[in-house]
Amino acid sequence: MSDALFRPIGHDQVREWLGRVVTAQRANGAYLFTGPDGIGKSALALEFAGALRCQSPTNGWSCGACNECVRIARGVHPSVRSFAKPDDKSAFPVELVRDIVDEASKKRLEPGMRVFVIADADRFNDNSANAFLKTLEEPPADLIIVLLAENLAQVLPTIISRCQPVRFSPLSDHQVKQITAGWDQLPVNPDSREVLIRAAQGSPGRLRRMGEAGVLDTAREFLKSVRSDPFLASEKLIDSIQGGDDNEGKRAQLREIIALLTATLRDRLLGSLGAADLAPFTRPFPDEPFTADHLAATLITLDDLRERIDGNVNLKLCCDAIALAWPT
Ligand SMILES: [Zn+2]
Predict the structure, then answer these.
(1) According to the model, what pLDDT value does residue 4 have?
(2) In the prediction, which pLDDT does 60 show?
């Protein structure tokens, strides 16, 4: 099986349950998949579409190899469409919803079920939700809508009430390791890979972003200078954020750096409490006098800052706050 095709690792319960739904031909018109970003909701929605159309399903699930599965996995099947909020919009645009509704009402191109996978369901505003509710409540008989959302609490109740909810949990580090084994944008060094996998918290998508953004190098540079010169460390942090002119890109990059620094401190906290088997990068330097209290206090600050990044906090001030909060 090539990289482009289904890679059924993790989320076994969800896959089994949906497989039973397909076998019993009891699929609902609309599902809402929720769980952290990058953990495979979209991939599993495509597997589900594959299961509904597969020419040689196994236990009600997609084979990943027939003509239907291959076209779905490659994103070129006319009956399986994916939609997402454009990057430059903060809310899911009502114009796009109207296009989806229009598309839903059109005659199918090939026999069999159609599936629309719609990401960013937590970014619908009242206008876009209102334009969608009728279709969501009563999709055409040959259409299944799968909405994806990172945060259930941010999905409008009018959307939630019209969907069958399906919760996704983060993958284990071992599963992330299996999924990302062949990815060439990740460090070759096994220790570096291990640190990033721990920081990605069960999300291969997040791991990919961390690898692409070079967060490990950034964190190394930060750690080199933070104790002797926190302001220099803060300068290095802000300089490393190169998400172009796009402010959202810079915020996303800083979010991943904070996640890595958090993972580093979390490991050091575990180390100070006697846990062994930590990745070398996250072990304390020999002269570091941190106590568990120091580490816990800094972790709380980082957690607070990560939440603020989603708001409108000044990124330079945020980097200063990280450097100044670092235990000394
Ligand atoms: Zn198949």
Answers:
(1) 39
(2) 84
The pLDDT tens digits of the residues spanning 121-139 come to 999 999 999 999 999 999 9
As beta bridge partners, residue 116 has 81, 145
| Owning domain of residue 242 | 173-325
Query: How many A from CA of 20 to the centre of ligand 1?
Result: 16
Residues 235, 109, single domain; the answer is no
What is the distance in A from the centroid of ligand 1 to the CA of 186? 31
The CATH number of whichever domain residue 22 belongs to comes to 3.40.50.300
Domain check: are 144 and 32 in the same one? yes
Domain assignment present for residue 5? The answer is no
| Domain presence at residue 40 | yes
Cα 64 to ligand 1 centre (Å):
5
Residues of the chain short of pLDDT 70, as ranges, are: 1-5, 243-245, 275-289
Residue 200 vs residues 164, 284, 296, 310: alpha-carbon distances, Å: 28, 20, 20, 18
How many whole angstroms from 81 Cα to the centroid of ligand 1? 17
Final residue before a domain boundary, out of 143, 167, 191: 167
Q: What are phi and psi of 149, to 5 degrees?
A: -150, 145
What pLDDT digit, counting tens, does each position of 230-275 carry?
999 999 999 888 755 577 778 888 888 888 888 888 888 877 777 6
Instruction: Specify whether 131 is located in the same domain as 275.
Output: no
Residue 108 DSSP code: P
Q: How far is the CA of 72 from the centre of ligand 1 (A)?
A: 9
Rounded to the nearest angstrom, the distance between the alpha carbon of 57 and the centre of ligand 1 is 6
